[in-house]
Every structure is written in structure tokens, then in C-alpha cells.
Write a structure and sequence with these properties.
12% of the residues lie in helices and 37% in strands. The protein is mainly beta and 345 residues long. A hairpin with a 3-residue loop joins strand 10 and strand 11. 21% of the residues are buried. Keywords: Bait region.
Amino acid sequence: VDLSFSSSQSLPSSQTRLQVTASPQSLCGLRAVDQSVLLLKPEAELSPSWIYNLPGMQHNKFIPSSRLSEDREDCILYRLWMSENRYSIRQGREKDVYSYVEDMGLTAFTNLKIKHPTSCFYYAPPVEFDHEFRDGLSGRLQMGSSERPPPEEPQRKDPPTKDPLTETIRKYFPETWVWDIVTVNSTGVAEVEMTVPDTITEWKAGALCLSNDTGLGLSSVVPLQAFQPFFVEVSLPYSVVRGEAFMLKATVMNYLPTSMRMSVQLEASPDFTAVPVGDDQDSYCLSANGRHTSSWLVTPKSLGNVNFSVSAEAQQSSEPCGSEVATVPETGRKDTVVKVLIVEA
């Protein structure tokens, strides 16, 4: 199973494509989560070794005993069988109840005759079902591959590039981005178009596919970096009491190797009053790979969910930033973050 994004890095709220390649007509589960989710519990990540260690994948004996004693009990004399004729002899590759239960990894305790005996006059070592089962599956469960190579895709012409985004409005910050099931077409390819969430982070995607022909397949983890030249992070409490004053902070981070002249604004609202803290609210110079925090003393006036919208914009300016000329990025010149605060009585 192979999984890939159309690009390894995208702007928040932009469009991207997730493509999965597997055996034709496979049913594939897709997942993409914030990398912080996997860091919290890395042992829960799905892997081939984790699947092989499942109880159903382990070969179990019905009753713990040596193979020699089982074989001796299963072998009956041909003359005794002819006289009593109480058992049926396995015909060719015919499977008995014992074999079906054993293949499922179950343990049975019964006094019923559920296993075919073998006749001693043509005795041969019994077939080891565990090797056949595991060898057949080991070829199917390989990281990033499948038994049947995917057919070659016809060359696809990408749509014309759109104008670079000048502003991103970020208000969707999930931990789980993709949790879906898709069916691979007859050529072995499935493609899903989706919108990148607003979180500035690295997303980790994976695919688990099932096929009637090739069995179980697991892809390797594929990353997607949601990134823009600069962005603003808003810090505020989860909830406050109406009339209670608190400090709202907006930190702008610059990941460019050049300086920018920034303007940070908190959108006015009748639901609260905001008083700037400091004297650099109109504009300031943000150094290369630097950060700057602006603050407001906020007092809510309304109950319920109150929206706070903070915008950071790179401005064209003839004024230098120190000894450097202030630059404006080609994409993502303005970043707006909307956060919700619960105001209680």
C-alpha cells in the first residue's frame, strides 16, 4: 500500500490531494492526525509487528502437549479402523472442525471427535497449518508494498496554478483531520481532495487496506507540513466571568530570513472592551526568524460564546527595519485567527 500527498507542504485552508495505491477494489481506511496525538501515545501506532502480535495471529494448540504424543494419538491401525469403522479418514486436502478452529486461533475443550485420525499404514507427518497460514500472510503484510504491483497511471495534467493566497483566516483547529473509508478503483488508485486545517503543525497520515485477493496491507506514515511564512498565535483562557478582565496575547512568529514590518489588530466588538498594552500596536519591525507579542486588557460584556478575531499583516513600507529593507512575502501576507471564549454569569 502506498500513500502520498500532492505536496509535502501546504498553506492552511488550501486544497491538497491524498492518493492511495493498493490492489484493485481494495477497501482502505484513511487517517491523518496532528503529530502531537502520536507523541502522546506512540505505542498505540499501528504497525506490522503490532498486527502480528494480536491474539488471533498467534498459532495455538488445543491442549498443550508435545507434537509426538498428538501424532501417536491421531494414528490408528488400518485393521482396527476396518473392524470398528467408527471414524472417517481424511480424503485428500479435506479440512475437519479441528483445522477450522485452529486456523482461527481459538482453543477448544471438548470430548467430541472433531479431528480426523490418520491411518498408520500410509502414515505421513501431518501438514503444518501454522506455517502455511503465516507464510501466506507474511507476503501480504509488508510495509509500503503489495503483492500485485499497481498499474501505471496515465499522465495527469495539473490544473493551472491559482494566484497566491494573500490572506488566511484560521478558525478550524482539529486534532483528527482525516478519518474516512475509500474504495480503490479497478486501476488500483483512489484519490481524495481535501482542505488543509488551520493548525500550523505536521500532519501524519496512514492507510490500512483490505483485499479479497491480497489480504491486509499497511502503508508507511506520510507527513504533510501545514506552514506559512509567518503566523499569529492567540492565547486566552477557556472561560471567564462577565466583567472579569483578562490579558489577551497575540504572538507573531516570522520564519523568513528577512525582516518585515507588521501590523497586529484585534477586531472591535460590542461583546467586549479591549485596551492595548504597550505603544507598538500600529506597526513594528519583526526581525528574521523572530517573534513579537502584542497584548490587550479585555473585559467581556456579553454572555455565551464570544469570538475574538486577531489579524497580523505584513505591510509595504519604505522605512527600514534596522539596517535591512522590510520585505513582504509573496504568499500568506495576512494571517487572521478566530478564537472562541466562553463567558459565564
